[in-house]
Amino acid sequence: MFVRRLQRGMRLQTDPTVIYGVGSEFDGNLRRTHLQDEDNAYNTYRHGGLPPLADRPAGTGIDSRRPAPGPGRGLVFVARGDGGHVFSASLAEHEAAVRQYQLQRRQDYRSSPEQPLT
């Protein structure tokens, strides 16, 4: 999905990079002010291309050599709250997913899978 966005000249517009740039001040609530912060070099809503140092290993524990999923049409995604995501190819699809999974979050909402990825 990110490669498709970059190939089309789109900004990545991904929350995790913004959160990374906010650092220890992040309290779990991503605010509009965070997304509008031009001084955050990792704010992919405000800065095009890859964020700084994106080409270096991050030590996530996930095997970066693992192939990406096959071709798709998704350009945006939203967390489902069970550790997974819904990918959308249009703004209408994305807005529907946001309404379904984000605006009224389940009580057991979580952002990571129960089992580590292998």
Write the layout of secondary structure elements.
Elements: H1 2-7, H2 15-22, H3 32-35, E1 76-79, E2 85-88, H4 91-101
Antiparallel strand pairs: 1-2
- What does the radius of gyration come to? 15 Å
Element order, helices and strands?
HHHEEH
Which shape, going by the Cα principal axes?
globular
DSSP strand (E) fraction?
5-15%
| Number of domains as seen in the coordinates | 2
Query: Are there runs of 5+ residues with pLDDT below 50, and where?
Result: none
Q: How would you classify the helix and strand content by structural class?
A: alpha+beta
What's the rounded overall pLDDT mean?
80
- Amino- and carboxy-terminal Cα gap: 20 Å
Q: What is the topology, as strand order, of the major beta sheet?
A: 1-2
What percent of residues adopt helix (DSSP H or I)? 10-25%
Number of helices: 4
Total beta strands: 2
Largest sheet: 2 strands, antiparallel
Structure, described:
This protein has 118 residues and is of the alpha+beta class. It folds into two domains: 1-52, no CATH class; 73-105, Double Stranded RNA Binding Domain (2-Layer Sandwich). The chain is 25% helix and 7% strand. The chain is built from four helices and two strands; from the N terminus they run αααββα. The chain has a two-stranded antiparallel sheet.
